[in-house]
From TrEMBL, chains A, B:
Name assigned to this protein: Aminodeoxychorismate lyase
InterPro entries listed in its UniProt record: Aminodeoxychorismate_lyase_IV (IPR017824), Aminotrans_IV (IPR001544), Aminotransferase-like (IPR036038), BCAT-like_C (IPR043132), BCAT-like_N (IPR043131), Class-IV_PLP-Dep_Aminotrnsfr (IPR050571)
Record note on quaternary structure: Homodimer.
Ranges annotated as spanning the membrane: none
Keyword annotations from UniProtKB, A to Z: Folate biosynthesis, Lyase, Pyridoxal phosphate
UniProt cross-references to SUPFAM superfamilies, sorted A to Z: D-aminoacid aminotransferase-like PLP-dependent enzymes
GO MF term list: 4-amino-4-deoxychorismate lyase activity
EC number: 4.1.3.38
Organism: Rhodanobacter hydrolyticus
Family recorded in the similarity comment: Belongs to the class-IV pyridoxal-phosphate-dependent aminotransferase family.
Amino acid sequence: MMLVDGQSQDTVAALDRGLLYGDGLFETIRFVGGNAPLWARHMQRLAHGCERLRLPAPDPVLLWREALAVTQGIVDAVLRITLTRGIGARGYAMPAVPHVTRIVAAFPLPEIDATAYRDGVRLHLCETRLAEQPLLAGIKHLNRLEQVLARAEWSDPAIAEGVLCDPHGNAISATAANLFAVIGDVPVTPRVHRCGVAGVLRAELLAALPQAQVRDLPLAECLVAGELFLCSSVRGILPVQAVGDRVFAPGPVARAMQAHWRGLGFTWEQA
Amino acid sequence: MMLVDGQSQDTVAALDRGLLYGDGLFETIRFVGGNAPLWARHMQRLAHGCERLRLPAPDPVLLWREALAVTQGIVDAVLRITLTRGIGARGYAMPAVPHVTRIVAAFPLPEIDATAYRDGVRLHLCETRLAEQPLLAGIKHLNRLEQVLARAEWSDPAIAEGVLCDPHGNAISATAANLFAVIGDVPVTPRVHRCGVAGVLRAELLAALPQAQVRDLPLAECLVAGELFLCSSVRGILPVQAVGDRVFAPGPVARAMQAHWRGLGFTWEQA
């Protein structure tokens, strides 16, 4: 089910700036049994994104009401909230008074193979590099062609995700998940201030792992890490089994974070 | 008037990948008296963009027919063609068989002050830098948040455009136009293989100026050029009068290119 500006419909204006320029933001939020354990963090990131893009922030109470309406009857749901700068005069200039378009849509959670949580997933090492744009880094904006191109690098269904690097060869993230490496005993996740998205589950894990470091993570260092795992607010914690030829085993930090994930109320996956 | 996939309508699916990810391309084409003098170059760039983004290229004959239909009755029209990867399963992966969404829309040409062509325009020097992404450079894709942010840097209506640099301090373009500088006697336009858009009028001018150089153009060099002008397939040739405090005068190359522009059939502006 889908609401556009509160109305039950499934279309938007063809001249919406979300389509013309990718001028907007989105959130993808997992619901389980009518609740969204990471809702507050999603709202925090969305508000931050609105500030960065100079979009008027939506009322979270209104979003929550619409989210409940569209997810109703779906036990395990993925909610997508999209906000755009709406319709304005032609051209890049922002309208003086933007009329934000608000799309709230729910989908059943895609099936995820339980062995992925137990044994880990295989990753492709992407040739696509993330460009460095500090003005857009961290936020979940609608300009996602880099991710589309990176995801098109493999079609083998046995490969679940890809590792994306910045132009200097630092590992940044997967195409639709953040990355943690355990170096020695220290969990490390890449900085996302020049490229990448500041994932909501990443923020949750950083709060749960006070010893974790947020720093540059050269790919070479990442590939010799003791453990590697992905986190996504839709898919949870996925240990990495392999990046190309390099093999990993699920480790204690990934297992602890899977337990943390389940503790949040996401009971579906069993590692 | 607007056609979406050949139908007279003004909406698209809210789950179109053009809106979800900016997954598509566009062209903005000037029509004058039922003709588009740069049509062939626009079609060439669009086909090249489709190849780069792995989109099936549309039939130019079909596009031409739709363009004539929507511009009918508008003497001076701007046509926007938007192609997106349509609707697919959720996620960044490209659908195996994409159903491209095709939007063909016409607008009356916005009024442009004739003194801009005679005396030149004032430019803002943008703080926003264009990120370097060779995989997307040159093509006119839908990921345009950088241009939106750059254009938001000024609101003074006396300033017509902004100069955008790459992260190394090379001048690249304006927010919605390409840039030529005349250094000594040589017209120079920046390379657009790491960022920027390969403008259709830029290509036309390069063909008309065999002595022109396409190379890196450090901003410092650009600011001491003998002449500076912008080119846009909608607005034509705009001499630059000032970039911030630095003052320029319209020069002979800009005047020659304005004559070339008029020679193409764009008779509206008189420099």
